[in-house]
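Sample 3 of the quickstart, ligand 2-acetamido-2-deoxy-beta-D-glucopyranose:
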Amino acid sequence: KIMRIIIILAMLMGVTGSPNGTIRPQAASADTMAHPNCIPEAADKTEKVRKNVMATGELNPNHYPARRAAQVVQHYLNTRYGSPFRLIGVQKVHSANDVADSGRKYQLELSVKETISNTTENCSAELFFPRGVEQHSPKVQASCEALLKIDTKAQEEALYQEYKRNQSLVSAQNLPDSHGRIAPDMEPFWQLGILASSFIMLNESNENTLYNVAQVANITQLATEDDQLKFDCHTLLHDMVSQEIIHWKLLFTWSPPEGVKVLQMEKLPHRHEQEEPPNTN
Ligand SMILES: *[C@@H]1O[C@H](CO)[C@@H](O)[C@H](O)[C@H]1NC(C)=O
Ligand SMILES: *[C@@H]1O[C@H](CO)[C@@H](O)[C@H](O)[C@H]1NC(C)=O
Ligand SMILES: *[C@@H]1O[C@H](CO)[C@@H](O)[C@H](O)[C@H]1NC(C)=O
Ligand SMILES: *[C@@H]1O[C@H](CO)[C@@H](O)[C@H](O)[C@H]1NC(C)=O
Ligand SMILES: *[C@@H]1O[C@H](CO)[C@@H](O)[C@H](O)[C@H]1NC(C)=O
Ligand SMILES: *[C@@H]1O[C@H](CO)[C@@H](O)[C@H](O)[C@H]1NC(C)=O
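Result:
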C-alpha cells in the first residue's frame, strides 16, 4: 500500500508524464520509480564498480550516484524556494561529475520542474558530502533564480488570510490517501508537509540515501498568538535505497514573508510495517 502511494506521489510531484492515468515514468526517474525493489543491489553494485574504476570524473547522469545527488538538490531547492504553491522536482540530470576532496563533491547540471505552473528550468548545482565519523548534512549550492519568478504571492496571501482568520483550525489525514487522491483545498497543506520534510530530508541525506515523502500522514493547525500559521505534522519518508519508511513528527510555522520554519523534529521509532534496514556495508 505504501509503495502504491509512493508511486502515485511521484506522479503528483511531476516526475512522470501523465498527471492522472497510468504510471509512465520518464527519463532519470524511470528506473528508480518502475522497479523500486531492485535499487539497493543495482545501485550498490554500480557504485562499487565505479569506486574501483575511477575515484573521480564524469558520472552517468542516469545512474544512482547522480540521481541521489540530484535528489538532495531537490530537497535543498524546496527548502529555499518552495511554498504551498511552488513545489520543485528534479526532472532530468543532464550531467554529473564527482570531484575528490576532503569529502565528496558533485557538480550537476539538471533541469528542475515546478509542478504547479509546469515550468522547467535548467540549473547548476554543487554539493558536498563531508567525510567523517559524525553524520554531517550535505552542503548544497544551487541557483535557480527563475523559479522565484513564478509569482505565487497572491495565492499565498489568500491562503494565509483564510486560515489565519478562521476560527476553526484545519486538520487533515492521509495526504494522499491510498487511491492517491488529495482534496484540492488540502493540496497546499500536503505541500507544506513536503516542504517541512525537505528540511529533514536535506539534513539526513548522504551519498547512500534517496529520500521522498511517501505520505503526509496528518497535519494539524495549532492556534498561535503571533502572525505565523503553526502546524503539527506527521510524515512518512521513504528511503528508496534501504526501502525503509521512516516516521517523523514535526512542528513548523509558515507565513508568506517567512516561509516554512521547522521548530522541532523528532524521528519516531520503527513501526511494524517496516523491515529492519539491511546492513549496507
Ligand atoms: C487521464 O487523462 C486523459 C486525458 O488527458 C484521459 O484520456 C484519461 O482517460 C485519463 N485517465 C484517467 C485514469 O483518468
Ligand atoms: C507541461 O509542459 C510540458 C512542456 O511544455 C507539456 O508537454 C506538458 O503537457 C505539460 N503538462 C501539463 C500537465 O500541463
Ligand atoms: C536545458 O539543458 C539541456 C541540455 O543542455 C538542453 O537540451 C535544454 O534545451 C535546456 N532547457 C532549457 C529550458 O534551457
Ligand atoms: C473555516 O473553516 C471551516 C471548517 O474547516 C470551513 O468550512 C470554512 O469554509 C472556513 N471558512 C473560511 C472563511 O475559510
Ligand atoms: C540536522 O541534524 C543535526 C544532527 O545530525 C541536528 O543537530 C540539527 O538540528 C538538524 N538540523 C536540521 C535543520 O534538520
Ligand atoms: C498521525 O499519523 C500517524 C501515522 O499514521 C499515527 O500513528 C498518528 O496517531 C496520527 N496522529 C494523529 C493526531 O492523527
